[in-house]
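Fold it.
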Amino acid sequence: MTTFPSFRPILLALAVALLCGCSQAYFWAVNAGVPETRAEAVAYAPDRDLRLDVYRTREPTSSPVVVFFYGGSWQSGRRQDYRFVGAALASNGIVAIIPDYRKSPQHPFPAFMQDAAAAIAWSRANAARYGGDPERIFVMGHSAGGQIVALLATDARYLRAVGMMPRDLAGVVGLAGPYDFLPITDPKIKTVFGPEKDWPLSQPINFVDGDEPPFLLMHGADDQKVWPMNSEHLAAKLRARHEAVTLEIVPGIGHIGLINGFVSRRFSPALDDSLRWINAIAHRSDH
């Protein structure tokens, strides 16, 4: 399996970026060697001025598709910063799609959920144009993006609004996501989710009812930004409903360390384990 870019040139830069807390330096480091022209930018919701990046595989085959939603506390982030994720997936035979979405405080919940559903619908309708299989659409998210994909797959109202249902998804990969995070105490996050009476609507764990696609939930055991119990609680709820779920709590890994596995497997098993799980499901659907 291929990781992208190579490990050695960025190790020191990553360490410096993380120590100084500089997101700009961090994204420069993880994207070292990934050309900005690697992806094709497409407008998926022109009325909202929203675009997504498509990363093709090397061979134009009917490949599995992963739609990846980045984190940023539902308040920040941009698709171009996650070239390292799109390139790593595409280099391993997955058509990768990374959408932007509206963010708080200008666009609080559920605006980003509506955008996410629109991006999934676009991906399904257009996957074949880019060598992807529209019947094998997976969703993946890190941190806040994990909450987005989990809620898409549990609260059917968002996909229903675009003519789909959760079971239309081939699977869900949640990386260090918050799924059971009440009460909300951070004032900025309160702004994201509005009045307290509406907070339960943001919790994926509240909507597990037995119609979900398979889940892979990965979390760093040392994550102090989003506690691992989020993944543990959601996995338990899915199991109670007899849903397929794989839970991985990775020892010695923190919140950012998990996603760094898409840079090199030396940081975490996130890419390798995601690929193994996705390909196992995709292979089953071939028979």
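The first strand starts at residue 40 and ends at 45.
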